[in-house]
Amino acid sequence: MLNDEEMQIWHMWKGSFKRIFSRVIKEMTEHTGLSEGDFGVLDRIDHFGNGKLRQQDLVDSMEWTKSRLSHHLTRMEQRGLVLRKPLDTGNGVQVIITSSGKSALDDSRPIVSKAIRKYFLDQLTEQDIELITNLAKRINLGS
Amino acid sequence: MLNDEEMQIWHMWKGSFKRIFSRVIKEMTEHTGLSEGDFGVLDRIDHFGNGKLRQQDLVDSMEWTKSRLSHHLTRMEQRGLVLRKPLDTGNGVQVIITSSGKSALDDSRPIVSKAIRKYFLDQLTEQDIELITNLAKRINLGS
DNA sequence: ATATCATGGTTGATACGTCAACCACAATAT
DNA sequence: ATATTGTGGTTGACGTATCAACCATGATAT
Protein backbone atom coordinates (compact mmCIF):
# COMPACT_ATOMS: atom_id res chain seq x y z
CA MET A 1 0.00 0.00 0.00
CA LEU A 2 2.95 2.30 0.69
CA ASN A 3 6.35 1.83 -0.89
CA ASP A 4 9.57 2.02 1.08
CA GLU A 5 10.21 5.62 0.22
CA GLU A 6 6.77 6.71 1.34
CA MET A 7 7.11 4.80 4.58
CA GLN A 8 10.45 6.48 5.15
CA ILE A 9 9.04 9.94 4.70
CA TRP A 10 6.44 9.19 7.32
CA HIS A 11 8.96 7.85 9.79
CA MET A 12 11.38 10.68 9.23
CA TRP A 13 8.71 13.22 9.73
CA LYS A 14 7.39 11.52 12.84
CA GLY A 15 10.89 11.06 14.19
CA SER A 16 11.95 14.64 13.58
CA PHE A 17 8.92 15.97 15.32
CA LYS A 18 9.17 13.73 18.31
CA ARG A 19 12.84 14.43 18.80
CA ILE A 20 12.58 18.17 18.54
CA PHE A 21 9.48 18.34 20.62
CA SER A 22 10.74 16.19 23.43
CA ARG A 23 13.95 18.19 23.61
CA VAL A 24 12.09 21.43 24.00
CA ILE A 25 9.77 20.06 26.66
CA LYS A 26 12.56 18.32 28.50
CA GLU A 27 14.54 21.53 28.70
CA MET A 28 11.57 23.28 30.25
CA THR A 29 10.56 20.61 32.74
CA GLU A 30 14.13 20.13 33.90
CA HIS A 31 14.55 23.82 34.59
CA THR A 32 11.13 24.72 35.92
CA GLY A 33 9.18 21.61 36.86
CA LEU A 34 6.34 22.53 34.51
CA SER A 35 4.95 19.99 32.07
CA GLU A 36 3.80 20.87 28.58
CA GLY A 37 0.22 20.95 29.80
CA ASP A 38 1.04 23.12 32.80
CA PHE A 39 2.74 25.63 30.57
CA GLY A 40 -0.10 25.68 28.07
CA VAL A 41 -2.67 26.29 30.77
CA LEU A 42 -0.71 29.00 32.55
CA ASP A 43 0.25 30.68 29.29
CA ARG A 44 -3.36 30.96 28.16
CA ILE A 45 -4.68 32.16 31.47
CA ASP A 46 -2.02 34.83 31.48
CA HIS A 47 -2.23 35.77 27.84
CA PHE A 48 -5.93 35.55 27.00
CA GLY A 49 -7.42 36.06 30.43
CA ASN A 50 -4.94 38.35 32.05
CA GLY A 51 -4.73 36.20 35.14
CA LYS A 52 -8.05 34.43 35.10
CA LEU A 53 -10.03 32.48 32.56
CA ARG A 54 -13.21 30.51 32.44
CA GLN A 55 -12.66 26.78 32.31
CA GLN A 56 -14.65 26.34 29.13
CA ASP A 57 -12.59 29.01 27.36
CA LEU A 58 -9.50 27.15 28.41
CA VAL A 59 -10.94 23.94 27.00
CA ASP A 60 -11.54 25.65 23.66
CA SER A 61 -8.16 27.25 23.32
CA MET A 62 -6.20 24.20 24.46
CA GLU A 63 -8.21 21.91 22.19
CA TRP A 64 -8.55 19.52 25.10
CA THR A 65 -11.60 17.71 26.39
CA LYS A 66 -13.25 19.15 29.46
CA SER A 67 -12.44 15.93 31.25
CA ARG A 68 -8.76 16.17 30.51
CA LEU A 69 -8.66 19.75 31.63
CA SER A 70 -10.57 19.00 34.80
CA HIS A 71 -8.14 16.28 35.79
CA HIS A 72 -5.16 18.43 34.92
CA LEU A 73 -6.42 21.41 36.87
CA THR A 74 -6.97 19.21 39.89
CA ARG A 75 -3.30 18.34 39.85
CA MET A 76 -2.23 21.91 39.20
CA GLU A 77 -4.42 23.15 42.02
CA GLN A 78 -2.82 20.63 44.35
CA ARG A 79 0.56 22.04 43.46
CA GLY A 80 -0.60 25.58 44.04
CA LEU A 81 -0.27 26.77 40.45
CA VAL A 82 -3.91 27.76 40.02
CA LEU A 83 -7.16 28.23 41.96
CA ARG A 84 -10.68 27.33 40.91
CA LYS A 85 -13.64 29.47 41.88
CA PRO A 86 -17.30 28.94 40.87
CA LEU A 87 -18.71 31.86 38.88
CA ASP A 88 -21.24 33.94 40.77
CA THR A 89 -23.24 34.52 37.66
CA GLY A 90 -24.75 31.08 37.09
CA ASN A 91 -22.85 28.17 35.67
CA GLY A 92 -19.12 27.73 35.22
CA VAL A 93 -15.79 28.02 36.94
CA GLN A 94 -13.04 30.63 36.89
CA VAL A 95 -9.48 29.41 36.83
CA ILE A 96 -7.15 31.86 38.49
CA ILE A 97 -3.39 31.81 38.26
CA THR A 98 -1.66 32.04 41.65
CA SER A 99 1.42 34.13 42.26
CA SER A 100 3.52 31.01 42.34
CA GLY A 101 1.91 29.89 39.09
CA LYS A 102 2.67 33.24 37.57
CA SER A 103 6.31 33.17 38.55
CA ALA A 104 6.73 29.61 37.32
CA LEU A 105 5.32 30.82 34.02
CA ASP A 106 7.61 33.82 33.89
CA ASP A 107 10.59 31.63 34.62
CA SER A 108 9.61 29.22 31.88
CA ARG A 109 9.00 31.60 29.02
CA PRO A 110 12.62 32.45 28.23
CA ILE A 111 13.66 28.85 28.65
CA VAL A 112 11.00 27.64 26.26
CA SER A 113 11.86 30.36 23.75
CA LYS A 114 15.53 29.55 23.83
CA ALA A 115 14.84 25.86 23.43
CA ILE A 116 12.50 26.43 20.49
CA ARG A 117 15.14 28.52 18.81
CA LYS A 118 17.94 26.11 19.50
CA TYR A 119 16.23 22.84 18.63
CA PHE A 120 13.77 24.04 16.02
CA LEU A 121 14.07 27.46 14.44
CA ASP A 122 17.82 27.34 14.03
CA GLN A 123 17.43 24.14 12.01
CA LEU A 124 15.05 25.69 9.51
CA THR A 125 15.71 27.23 6.14
CA GLU A 126 13.45 29.81 4.53
CA GLN A 127 11.98 27.02 2.47
CA ASP A 128 11.24 24.89 5.49
CA ILE A 129 9.27 27.73 6.99
CA GLU A 130 7.23 28.08 3.85
CA LEU A 131 6.55 24.38 3.84
CA ILE A 132 5.35 24.46 7.41
CA THR A 133 3.16 27.44 6.81
CA ASN A 134 1.53 25.97 3.73
CA LEU A 135 1.07 22.56 5.24
CA ALA A 136 -0.53 24.02 8.31
CA LYS A 137 -2.97 25.93 6.13
CA ARG A 138 -3.94 22.83 4.23
CA ILE A 139 -4.34 20.78 7.37
CA ASN A 140 -6.47 23.31 9.11
CA LEU A 141 -8.68 23.89 6.10
CA GLY A 142 -9.09 20.18 5.55
CA SER A 143 -11.29 19.79 8.60
CA MET B 1 12.85 36.17 22.97
CA LEU B 2 10.72 34.97 20.05
CA ASN B 3 8.69 37.30 17.87
CA ASP B 4 5.11 36.60 16.90
CA GLU B 5 6.00 35.10 13.58
CA GLU B 6 8.47 32.69 15.11
CA MET B 7 5.97 31.66 17.73
CA GLN B 8 3.44 31.03 14.99
CA ILE B 9 5.77 28.77 13.05
CA TRP B 10 6.26 26.70 16.15
CA HIS B 11 2.57 26.43 16.85
CA MET B 12 1.68 25.65 13.26
CA TRP B 13 4.25 22.95 13.12
CA LYS B 14 3.19 21.45 16.40
CA GLY B 15 -0.47 21.69 15.46
CA SER B 16 -0.05 20.14 12.03
CA PHE B 17 1.85 17.23 13.41
CA LYS B 18 -0.52 16.53 16.22
CA ARG B 19 -3.56 16.71 14.00
CA ILE B 20 -2.18 14.49 11.27
CA PHE B 21 -0.73 12.04 13.69
CA SER B 22 -3.80 11.68 15.83
CA ARG B 23 -5.97 11.15 12.77
CA VAL B 24 -3.80 8.32 11.56
CA ILE B 25 -3.69 6.64 14.94
CA LYS B 26 -7.37 7.13 15.57
CA GLU B 27 -8.22 5.51 12.26
CA MET B 28 -6.18 2.48 13.22
CA THR B 29 -7.38 2.07 16.79
CA GLU B 30 -11.00 2.48 15.78
CA HIS B 31 -10.72 -0.25 13.17
CA THR B 32 -8.42 -2.69 14.90
CA GLY B 33 -8.16 -1.91 18.61
CA LEU B 34 -4.38 -1.54 18.39
CA SER B 35 -2.66 1.45 19.93
CA GLU B 36 0.34 3.16 18.37
CA GLY B 37 2.62 1.25 20.71
CA ASP B 38 0.96 -2.08 19.99
CA PHE B 39 1.42 -1.58 16.28
CA GLY B 40 5.04 -0.52 16.64
CA VAL B 41 5.87 -3.57 18.70
CA LEU B 42 4.08 -6.04 16.47
CA ASP B 43 5.44 -4.47 13.32
CA ARG B 44 9.02 -4.80 14.49
CA ILE B 45 8.68 -8.32 15.75
CA ASP B 46 7.23 -9.29 12.41
CA HIS B 47 9.55 -7.28 10.22
CA PHE B 48 12.92 -7.52 11.94
CA GLY B 49 12.45 -10.72 13.85
CA ASN B 50 10.20 -12.69 11.57
CA GLY B 51 7.86 -13.56 14.41
CA LYS B 52 10.09 -13.31 17.44
CA LEU B 53 12.52 -10.75 18.76
CA ARG B 54 14.64 -10.28 21.81
CA GLN B 55 13.26 -7.70 24.21
CA GLN B 56 16.43 -5.62 24.16
CA ASP B 57 16.40 -5.45 20.36
CA LEU B 58 12.86 -4.23 20.59
CA VAL B 59 13.91 -1.56 23.07
CA ASP B 60 16.61 -0.36 20.67
CA SER B 61 14.47 -0.22 17.58
CA MET B 62 11.49 1.39 19.30
CA GLU B 63 13.69 3.94 21.02
CA TRP B 64 11.81 3.22 24.24
CA THR B 65 13.16 2.60 27.71
CA LYS B 66 13.26 -1.00 28.88
CA SER B 67 10.81 -0.06 31.58
CA ARG B 68 8.30 1.33 29.16
CA LEU B 69 8.55 -1.73 26.98
CA SER B 70 8.25 -4.08 29.92
CA HIS B 71 5.03 -2.44 31.08
CA HIS B 72 3.66 -2.36 27.58
CA LEU B 73 4.43 -6.00 26.90
CA THR B 74 2.73 -6.99 30.12
CA ARG B 75 -0.46 -5.44 28.85
CA MET B 76 -0.05 -6.89 25.37
CA GLU B 77 0.59 -10.31 26.83
CA GLN B 78 -2.59 -10.02 28.87
CA ARG B 79 -4.52 -9.34 25.69
CA GLY B 80 -2.94 -12.30 23.95
CA LEU B 81 -1.02 -10.33 21.33
CA VAL B 82 2.43 -11.61 22.31
CA LEU B 83 4.16 -14.18 24.51
CA ARG B 84 7.33 -13.80 26.56
CA LYS B 85 9.79 -16.67 26.93
CA PRO B 86 13.12 -16.58 28.77
CA LEU B 87 16.05 -17.33 26.50
CA ASP B 88 17.69 -20.70 27.12
CA THR B 89 21.07 -19.32 26.36
CA GLY B 90 21.63 -17.16 29.38
CA ASN B 91 20.13 -13.76 29.92
CA GLY B 92 17.24 -12.15 28.11
CA VAL B 93 13.71 -12.71 26.94
CA GLN B 94 12.21 -13.57 23.57
CA VAL B 95 9.03 -11.81 22.61
CA ILE B 96 6.93 -13.92 20.30
CA ILE B 97 3.98 -12.71 18.29
CA THR B 98 0.88 -14.87 18.70
CA SER B 99 -1.40 -15.80 15.84
CA SER B 100 -3.98 -13.34 17.08
CA GLY B 101 -1.27 -10.68 17.32
CA LYS B 102 -0.19 -11.47 13.80
CA SER B 103 -3.66 -11.17 12.39
CA ALA B 104 -4.30 -7.93 14.23
CA LEU B 105 -1.11 -6.65 12.65
CA ASP B 106 -2.10 -7.82 9.19
CA ASP B 107 -5.47 -6.18 9.56
CA SER B 108 -3.86 -2.94 10.65
CA ARG B 109 -1.26 -2.50 7.97
CA PRO B 110 -3.54 -1.50 5.10
CA ILE B 111 -5.54 0.75 7.38
CA VAL B 112 -2.46 2.54 8.60
CA SER B 113 -1.11 2.86 5.08
CA LYS B 114 -4.33 4.30 3.76
CA ALA B 115 -4.52 6.74 6.64
CA ILE B 116 -0.94 7.89 6.17
CA ARG B 117 -1.63 8.48 2.51
CA LYS B 118 -4.90 10.24 3.10
CA TYR B 119 -3.91 12.49 5.97
CA PHE B 120 -0.23 13.00 5.22
CA LEU B 121 1.25 12.01 1.87
CA ASP B 122 -1.61 13.37 -0.20
CA GLN B 123 -1.00 16.77 1.35
CA LEU B 124 2.61 16.91 0.21
CA THR B 125 4.21 18.14 -2.97
CA GLU B 126 7.44 16.75 -4.39
CA GLN B 127 9.23 19.70 -2.92
CA ASP B 128 7.74 19.14 0.50
CA ILE B 129 9.06 15.61 0.51
CA GLU B 130 12.54 16.78 -0.28
CA LEU B 131 12.41 19.32 2.50
CA ILE B 132 11.22 16.81 5.04
CA THR B 133 13.97 14.45 4.03
CA ASN B 134 16.62 17.12 4.44
CA LEU B 135 15.20 18.37 7.68
CA ALA B 136 15.16 14.89 9.11
CA LYS B 137 18.79 14.41 8.17
CA ARG B 138 19.78 17.58 9.94
CA ILE B 139 17.81 16.69 13.06
CA ASN B 140 19.15 13.20 13.30
CA LEU B 141 22.73 14.26 12.74
CA GLY B 142 22.47 16.99 15.31
CA SER B 143 22.69 14.52 18.15
C1' DA C 1 36.57 -19.13 44.24
C1' DT C 2 34.58 -14.88 45.08
C1' DA C 3 33.99 -10.01 44.63
C1' DT C 4 32.74 -6.59 41.12
C1' DC C 5 30.60 -4.89 37.21
C1' DA C 6 27.72 -4.80 33.08
C1' DT C 7 23.65 -6.35 30.81
C1' DG C 8 18.71 -7.44 30.59
C1' DG C 9 14.44 -7.17 32.75
C1' DT C 10 10.75 -6.13 36.50
C1' DT C 11 8.25 -3.44 39.73
C1' DG C 12 5.81 0.43 42.20
C1' DA C 13 4.67 5.06 42.39
C1' DT C 14 2.98 8.75 40.16
C1' DA C 15 1.75 11.81 36.21
C1' DC C 16 -0.76 12.15 32.01
C1' DG C 17 -4.88 10.92 28.59
C1' DT C 18 -9.29 9.03 27.22
C1' DC C 19 -13.81 7.34 27.68
C1' DA C 20 -18.28 6.92 29.53
C1' DA C 21 -21.23 7.97 33.17
C1' DC C 22 -22.72 11.24 36.02
C1' DC C 23 -24.26 15.77 38.39
C1' DA C 24 -25.64 20.84 38.61
C1' DC C 25 -27.61 24.62 36.79
C1' DA C 26 -30.06 27.42 33.23
C1' DA C 27 -32.97 28.07 29.35
C1' DT C 28 -36.94 26.58 26.76
C1' DA C 29 -41.22 24.23 25.71
C1' DT C 30 -45.61 22.42 27.20
C1' DA D 1 -45.33 24.55 37.37
C1' DT D 2 -42.88 20.92 35.46
C1' DA D 3 -40.69 18.34 31.92
C1' DT D 4 -36.89 18.60 28.45
C1' DT D 5 -32.73 19.97 26.61
C1' DG D 6 -28.20 22.13 26.56
C1' DT D 7 -24.11 23.76 28.73
C1' DG D 8 -20.36 23.38 32.10
C1' DG D 9 -17.91 20.52 35.04
C1' DT D 10 -16.59 16.14 37.87
C1' DT D 11 -15.54 11.45 38.64
C1' DG D 12 -13.78 6.56 38.21
C1' DA D 13 -11.69 3.21 35.59
C1' DC D 14 -8.24 2.09 32.83
C1' DG D 15 -4.39 2.63 29.34
C1' DT D 16 -0.07 4.97 28.64
C1' DA D 17 4.64 7.21 30.06
C1' DT D 18 8.47 8.17 33.21
C1' DC D 19 11.51 7.62 37.06
C1' DA D 20 14.03 5.30 40.43
C1' DA D 21 14.81 1.23 42.83
C1' DC D 22 15.42 -3.32 42.46
C1' DC D 23 16.68 -8.30 40.97
C1' DA D 24 18.89 -11.96 38.13
C1' DT D 25 22.35 -13.64 35.15
C1' DG D 26 26.78 -13.50 32.89
C1' DA D 27 31.51 -11.68 32.25
C1' DT D 28 35.87 -9.94 34.35
C1' DA D 29 39.33 -9.19 37.71
C1' DT D 30 41.75 -10.58 41.81
UniProtKB/TrEMBL annotation, chains A, B:
Q: Which GO terms describe its molecular function?
A: DNA binding; DNA-binding transcription factor activity
Query: By its UniProt entry, which SMART domains does this protein fall under?
Result: HTH_MARR
Where in this chain does the record put each HTH marR-type domain? 1-141
Tell whether Zinc-finger is among the UniProt keywords. no
This protein's record includes keyword Flavoprotein: no
Write down the InterPro entries for this protein, in alphabetical order.
DUF7343, HTH_MarR-typ, WH-like_DNA-bd_sf, WH_DNA-bd_sf
For this UniProt record, the keywords arranged alphabetically read as follows:
DNA-binding, Transcription, Transcription regulation
> Pfam families attached here?
DUF7343 (PF24034)
State the protein's name: HTH-type transcriptional regulator MhqR
The protein's organism comes out as: Desulfosporosinus acididurans
User: What taxonomic classification does the UniProt entry list for its organism?
Assistant: Bacteria, Bacillati, Bacillota, Clostridia, Eubacteriales
Gene symbol? mhqR
